Amino acid sequence: MSLKSLLARPFAAWEAAQIRRWSADPGGSQRRVLEQLLRKGSQTHFGREHRLDQVRDAAGFRQAIPLKDYEQFKPWIERVKSGESDVLWPGKPAYFAKTSGTTSGTKYIPLTPDSIPNHINTARAALTSYIHSTGRTAFVDGKMIFLQGSPVLTRTGGIPTGRLSGLVYHHVPAYLLRNRMPTYETNCIEDWEEKIDAICRETSRERMTLISGIPPWVIMYFERLLALNKVETIRDLFPDFSLFVHGGVNFQPYAARLQELIGGPVDTLETYPASEGFIAFQDSLDAEGLLLNVASGIWFEFIPMDHYQEPNPPRLTVEEVEIGVQYALIVNNNAGLWGYRLGDTIRFTSLRPARIVVTGRTAHFLSAFGEHVIAEEVEGAMQMLREQLGLEVVEFTVAPRMGNGQTMPRHEWYVEFSRPPVSLSKAAGLLDTAMQARNTYYKDLITGSILAPLAIFPVRPGGFRDYQRSVGKLGGQNKVARLANNRNIADALQPYLEATLT
Description:
- This protein is of the alpha/beta class.
- The protein is built from 18 helices and 18 strands.
- It has a domain at 375-496: GMP Synthetase, Chain A, domain 3, CATH 3.30.300.
- Helices cover 37% and strands 22% of the residues.
């Protein structure tokens, strides 16, 4: 056991005590964050225009700060890009995190010297929480890989700009640098498939102990590793691999395939990072949900999804929410985002401490016929189908199909199987029953003969990756939307379908 491994446990115990302290009183922690934001925010152009110096509490904050999506926030970002100081936060941002918006094109999210610790320290807190919960430290002595974007930065209005994961690369703590994979040169490769192949060559002969990334792209990495090294499982190649860190998408749809590739179970650690802030992390292997990051520069507000489309919806604090309700997440942070609609939906599993699960995206829902279906429901139904029929699913998405006078409207599921069902019609029937059990609106539409039962369309092996390659969204932080109110993805997948199963 190395000195690093020996020191990890007492340090993890110390950090766990800090986490327990701020998480035990989420309301008090959030009030302190709000005070800090108001104090600094009042010194900015935005703060003076919105009279933040006169705000004293959450109610006053709601009155002063209107809700904004990126398009509404964009004029302020443009002022920052033009070189102005003290626009949204004192001084200028340290970076712009560049993200791809579904409706806004490229988005530039500011990161400031005050907000960077939120990203770095929370990633550390997730790992130390794991160490403290399990007592396992061996992984710190091996090599660790983080599948991420290129660390090469451009400049926007003089401000360094890149993908969040590439920006964070420049702030990796010194004690991790010697263990970190891949090399800087390999990380700079822009083409995702070329980059994965280079990473495979670099890591094949290393003692890998921790692997981190978005599950579908880790699957791609594992498949390439197995093919390159002509071994059956990742365990054959990396016998000391003990911890998989993941985030960005729901892990459950990918769990079976990952376990098959690995060759057995491995400890997993879930995180919830975003360019707008590191929202939550798994602090316990036993408790459901992720610990909300209530003491790290972000003031959270929560809009009940039943009211989300209203002009002035209720905006609740962490002290006002309820377990089990679907909320849209609003972010106010020390990077200068105010009343910002993050676009994610969550529900609480615990209030003290505040723990959440991510249930979908506000823009990714299916209600073409008034059914109000969300990602959590379709993923839960698909998981049930996997368990009942022993299926393995690589990827899937759901879209509406309108009726044409001769056929009834219905939901269409586009699914890439690695182990398909014997009978597609049986699988569709079970899936439809599972959806009716999860969504009463959908059940009423089916029983009322407004919708026909759903249909499954199998996508050929590799079809989703080929589709993503065709639209320039292969690798990195890109994910397939689980469901939508339109047929954009469904229609684009048509060339990648295979012959319908019986």
